[in-house]
Design goal:
alpha+beta, 7-stranded mixed β-sheet, 6-stranded antiparallel β-sheet, elongated
């Protein structure tokens, strides 16, 4: 068990907590740094670890960081043995705590890759010098003929490091791909390497010629340059996708020394700070419970829906969601925003999202491209066997090299990733490129009303009922401060109460209201239906108050619609069906909406969160592709069910991992442009596909006819990727300048 000793230290709790993100009951979430991750087939293998061991629940790869996040059942699988499993399949984890603690300082290229490039350059340069006599016709020189074996065997020796070091990964990952029934581009490259080297050795050993060591070394050198270029590009692509995290103004309520609350940006939070977390809020950082009753939902972390109680003094992990009254926490770890990104990209939260046309094209291309290339190579070899045997290897390997799909593979993520970066600067934060693809296929737009198309900052609030006493205001504020609903926060701010009563049995029913026991008196706040009364008014949205089971009045919100809302609907009507879903039941509001909406639109009021979800499911069955825009609280289920769920916010203080995008309220008037650019992006990708395929077709023709050597093909291959990236950058820049400048 020598292998086991290598990772036995991971079973030490003090060491393991350095890489463990979450641990509770039988579930552990851990992150490993895997230096050998280098391509899409690696991702495919590592994200299917659950097929290797029954106690591995889920695995997710962060490609540019080369980090894998694994959720597993630690009662049936030790952390040390998990590391051994990764080592056995060829992905040995590097337990580098400095790397984990300083994620932002990661290096783009590892030393091994630079070392391989240096060796390849040295061997390539010397082999080309030794091959020059063969190119200039020195076979007529008697001295060279007598010493030709010295030059040829020296070229063979210089090619050995290239084969042993530069191509080891290709052969290893081709074998791994075969084991996992994955056909990747390492397979034709590996075949080419082995056959080209074997044939060259055969020619040298039997004195038939000098072989193709020059082409082999040249291919190695330019392939490594191409790989470095791709790694740099992939890092840029993924930084495009994640750039929203540096712009997203997620905030948190910090408790100052005078016990007053202050909203601060999340990245300003420090170890030792005290924060307050309300009902339905995500805890953004590892903390200790210091006050309140914590009832936690860890489904974002583990996928399990049961609730966990925590006592004062116990540790609470980042990513848990509070269910109940407000709790006070002491921060024990610095904020790691990349951890929130793991939550937002959690696959469990995207189970309802469908695969669309473009994604299927990309998958089919990757699946069938390699077999087609191999068939063309075999047919080329058979053809030249009957025409000119000496050209078989030159033509076959030129085909294998020139048809490398790097350019096509880069096209989609680069264009969509760049637009994600551009959108984030304009207040629209898209989760990933898959979401961008789905946005381009949207046919129906569903809007929530309150807080979405109405401007909460301009709403007027008035209390209808007897004058509220100071004690009643204090009771109402004590209950409201536990809720993150926009109306609750608005009333809480209006009342301006600084001292609060303790609450027992706090409960919030999403879409209806909140309740709790204050000084042994039941207090309820919410819709008239929730309170059990009827309010006859048509002036705006109402929030009713009940203290000690007696209705005492209601707060009336007079809605102000966002500036330019009529123009937003007019811009959208040509391309999309528009639907308004609201929990309101105000006929005056309905008549106003009918006056500003296109005639083909639908307005459906009196909708609970469950009814909104059912309605989205209903129209999806009819073939509609839905984007829903809501406040992210009452609409969370419907947002998750939609093809694209967009949460709108004034100053985001909550985190909704089940949304696909966020939009700042002051940028809602640009939603039409965002949607238009998303459709244009697909056209740009198709153009890029055509450019790449045209290049490949021309290259194949030259390769089959024998006018393209492997050496020239290896030079042209990275140029293809460069042309795709130049087109992607120029086209996305022109489109963004045209519509968003």
């Amino acid at each position: 068990m020598k292998q086991n000793e290598n990772f036995k230290f991971l079973d030490d709790e003090k060491i393991s907590e350095k890489i463990i993100d979450f641990k509770d009951k039988n579930i552990t979430s851990v992150r490993f740094f895997i230096p050998s991750i280098h391509c899409s087939s690696c991702i495919m293998i590592l994200e299917n670890l659950s097929n290797i061991h029954k106690n591995i629940i889920e695995s997710t790869v962060d490609f540019p960081s080369k980090i894998i996040r694994i959720i597993f059942n630690h009662s049936g699988l030790k952390l040390s043995y998990l590391a051994i499993i990764l080592e056995k399949i060829g992905y040995k984890p590097s337990i580098n705590f400095e790397f984990l603690e300083k994620k932002n300082n990661k290096k783009i290229f590892d030393r091994k890759l630079i070392g391989k490039l240096a060796i390849s350059f040295f061997c390539f340069g010397n082999i080309m010098l030794l091959a020059i006599p063969e190119y200039v016709g020195s076979h007529e020189d008697i001295w060279y003929l007598e010493n030709r074996n010295f030059f040829r065997y020296l070229m063979l020796i210089l090619s050995l490091p290239i084969v042993l070091f530069s191509f080891t990964d290709h052969i290893k990952y081709a074998i791994l791909g075969f084991k996992k029934h994955i056909i990747n581009m390492d397979i034709p490259i590996s075949i080419g390497i082995l056959v080209l080297f074997s044939w060259s050795c055969y020619e040298v050993f039997f004195d038939l010629g000098s072989g193709y060591f020059d082409s082999l070394s040249g291919f190695s050198f330019f392939l490594l340059i191409s790989k470095i270029f791709q790694i740099y590009t992939h890092n840029k692509i993924f930084s495009f996708e994640k750039s929203y995290k540096s712009f997203y103004p997620i905030s948190i309520s910090k408790i100052k020394k005078n016990n007053k609350e202050e909203n601060i940006l999340l990245f300003s939070l420090k170890k030792g700070d005290h924060i307050i977390i309300r009902n339905e809020e995500i805890i953004p950082v590892d903390s200790i419970l210091i006050k309140g009753y914590a009832l936690l939902d860890n489904s974002f972390l583990t996928g399990e829906s049961y609730l966990i109680r925590k006592k004062i003094g116990e540790r609470i992990y980042a990513g848990s969601k509070q269910k109940g009254e407000a709790i006070y926490l002491k921060v024990i770890k610095d904020v790691d925003q990349s951890y929130l990104s793991l939550l937002w990209n959690n696959k469990k939260l995207r189970k309802n999202k469908k695969n669309f046309h473009l994604n299927s094209i990309t998958n089919k291309f990757s699946q069938y491209f390699t077999p087609i290339v191999l068939i063309i190579s075999i047919i080329t070899g058979i053809y030249w066997y009957f025409i000119n045997v000496s050209k078989i290897f030159q033509t076959v390997f030129s085909v294998l090299i020139i048809t490398c799909p790097c350019a096509v593979v880069l096209s989609t993520p680069f264009i969509l990733g760049n637009f994600i970066r551009i959108f984030s600067k304009k207040g629209f934060y898209v989760k990933d490129i898959s979401t961008m693809e789905r946005i381009s296929n949207i046919s129906t737009l569903i809007f929530d009303k309150t807080g979405t198309i109405t401007d909460q900052n301009k709403e007027k609030i008035s209390f209808i009922g007897p004058y509220l006493k100071c004690k009643e205001k204090k009771m109402i504020s004590s209950l409201l401060r536990n809720s993150i609903h926009p109306l609750s926060k608005k009333i809480f701010s209006e009342l301006s109460i600084n001292k609060f009563y303790p609450i027992k049995n706090f409960r919030e029913i999403i879409g209806y209201g909140i309740e709790g026991i204050i000084n042994k008196v039941p207090v309820k706040i919410g819709s008239s239906k929730y309170i059990g009364i009827t309010i006859n008014n048509s002036q705006g949205t109402s929030v009713a108050i009940s203290i000690n089971k007696k209705f005492i009045g209601y707060f009336l919100f007079r809605n102000y619609y966002r500036k330019g809302i009529e123009q937003i609907f007019q811009n959208l009507k040509k391309k999309y069906k528009i639907i308004i879903l609201s929990g309101d039941n105000n006929q005056l509001e309905k008549k106003y909406l009918e006056s500003i909406l296109p005639k083909s639109s639908k307005i459906i009021f009196n909708q609970s969160p469950e009814k909104k979800l059912d309605y989205v499911k209903k129209i999806q069955k009819n073939g509609e592709k839905v984007m829903m825009i809501g406040d992210g609280i009452n609409d969370s289920s419907a947002l998750n069910q939609s093809e694209v769920g967009v949460s709108i916010s004034e100053t985001p203080s909550s985190f909704f991992p089940n949304c696909d995008a966020f939009i700042q309220s002051n940028y809602l008037n640009k939603i039409f442009l965002f949607l238009k650019i998303s459709r244009i992006s697909i056209k740009l990708i198709i153009v890029n596909f055509m450019i790449s395929l045209f290049y490949n077709c021309i290259g194949i023709i030259f390769a089959i006819t024998g006018f393209l050597t492997p050496f020239i093909a290896a030079i042209l291959m990275p140029l293809s990727s460069l042309s795709v990236i130049i087109f992607s950058l120029l086209s996305t820049w022109i489109v963004s300048r045209r519509f968003l400048s």
